[in-house]
Amino acid sequence: MASQIPALPQSYAPTNESVFSDQSGFFSLDSNVPGLSRVILNSLNMKDYGQYRAAVEGKNKGISFRNYKDMFNKMEETFKFCTGCNKLPEHLTEGQSLKRCVKCLNVYYCTKDCQRKDWPQHKKVCKKLRLVGIDRLVEWLSFTGNLPFPTKKWCKSAAEVRNWEDWLSMQGDLSPCLDTILSGGNMTNLWKNNCRPRPDDDDLRQSLWRIQSEFLSRVLTVGMAVQHFSLDPYAKPLTIHLAGASHNESMGARLTDYDELNSMFPGHQGIEVVMVGPEVVDGPIVRPPLRAFGPRQRVYISAYKGLYHQFWEELVEKKEAAKPDLVVGYHPGFHANKGLIEGWLPTLLLLRDFNIPSFFTMFSEMELECSLQILHELEIHIRDSGPNPFTSQKPEQVQACPNKMPVYCNSQYIRFQGLQPQQESEEASPDN
Question: Which segments of the protein form a coiled coil according to its record (predicted)?
């Protein structure tokens, strides 16, 4: 019955302690913001993303899975709800159970009637959602150290690498690297212990590349932003802040994650990347940012757990951290609900008033249009926007409404800086 389905919570304004984007993902039916949500953590009896990371890495910090099979089963349970009527397993009547679509193995239904009614919508995305289901499992290899795999040095200048095709042309044949991962013990454990049949090797190779592309998409987007603002990493060290950094960037982060910038700008004067956000997960990158000049020809990563304007007040203004040459934001999602825009408002005004070069990415054209409108209302000077040539190739499912077309990380971008220029002249009035 409809009354058995829990009501969706209202958006809420963030506090200093809250991880305010937890409302995104599962509960944001219409916002197209995918990602690990609070409802998933609740289903796993975990209080934060740090516990989730510790569990998938096999580290016992008060909570763990009994074995791989238990881990994969519980992770799959967090995606179980009827796509037709939104019922969760605990709201099914006696004798009912959720059944998967046999084609994509990625959506569930409580009855054949729900599946039949949903098919006109589901058939439009069924093939894509099959890839989503594979990637969701293969992504576990990023916690085992198999992903991302090493890349080769660049034989072209940064200006010559304009898209994925240009980047791949420098890497040569990726098959040997991918085949090593395919034949490894972690891949074997993955498909031995989850509830899906192992895809064929070609499907798995493509999945490995899609997940690799999502990782690289963030790094190459930063490099592209450096070029778009004509910043010169050879003239002086650069400080880059990642505002709104979340569990997506920090949960498995390593100190070498942005080393692709060394290949992009060989011989640079030093690049510091500071991840700042309330969802930053504890790990090796959570260390104090640099106050000034960084190590030459190296990328230094640090992190701060908190809102960006707090970071600015507590560290930048007190000269405990260097002012940024560039601020990048991946999928801020401030269009999604009132709580998110209220959380981002002080940061957006800070970026505007301090005239800081800023480069934000979005999941979709819809998010791009909404974000452009918000920035315009804040009188922020938008320099340009459009499709990102280094879009992640991994499709992302909107969790609460899986029959929406999947979106892609960093698929759109907005480049902005400072205050909108005043109109040079009023529209000329006709002569009398």
Answer: none
